[in-house]
Design brief:
The chain has 164 residues and is an alpha/beta fold. The chain has helices at 28-32, 44-49, 65-73, 98-108, 145-163; strands at residues 2-7, 13-18, 21-27, 57-61, 78-79, 90-94, 114-126, 135-144. The protein has two domains: 2-94, no CATH class; 98-163, no CATH class. The protein has five helices and eight strands. The strands form two sheets. Strands 3-2-1-4-6-5 form a six-stranded mixed beta sheet. The longest helix has 19 residues, at 145-163. The relative contact order is 0.12.
Length: 164
């Protein structure tokens, strides 16, 4: 499976992951020289347009602006929430919640069947993006591997059925 993943937040980056191997990776701060640089947007047009093979999925974490850049610069057909719906092409999935990403990575790499994950992140996570008023620095997530896997499979099946 070929996956393009883009994170637009502190330590912003983009990666192409193909069948278990990293093909291409950019960490914004390595290009700009600014520690924890959030501004990946200037690097994305070249990164996206340089894709020679179509991805199975594009996973994004960040603002709606990412969807606009993907629609404009990714050389293949795309569809998904927030984008035009298509019967083919790469599906773009947006995962909400900066802290959710940290917690997911911690749990799914832990090897535990059940866990409570505490995320403490000084950059914070906007609770209400529309008002941009509340920022939490700590979040708690509860995981159950079997339940989470069944929920994930259910979402994937729903997506696949919508594509057919």
């Amino acid at each position: 499976m070929r996956i393009v993943a883009i994170h637009a937040g502190h330590d912003s980056n983009a990666c192409v992951y193909n069948d278990g191997k990293v093909e291409k990776y950019i960490l914004t701060e390595r290009v700009t020289g600014k520690k924890h640089d959030r501004d990946i947007y200037s690097l994305l047009p070249e990164f996206l347009s340089s894709q020679k093979e179509e991805a199975d999925r594009i996973l994004i974490s960040g603002e709606k602006r990412l969807l606009d850049l993907i629609a404009e610069h990714y050389p293949f057909e795309v569809g998904g929430p927030g984008l035009r719906q298509t019967r083919g092409g790469t599906v773009v999935l947006s995962v909400e919640g900066h802290h959710q990403h940290h917690a997911d990575l911690a749990f799914w790499n832990s090897g535990f069947d059940k866990s409570i994950v505490l995320v403490v992140d000084s950059q914070g996570h906007h609770v209400n993006k529309q008002k941009n008023d509340l920022v939490e620095s700590e979040s708690i997530y509860v995981y159950d591997r079997l339940k989470n896997l069944l929920d994930y499979i259910k979402v994937l099946l729903e997506m696949l059925l919508k594509k057919v």
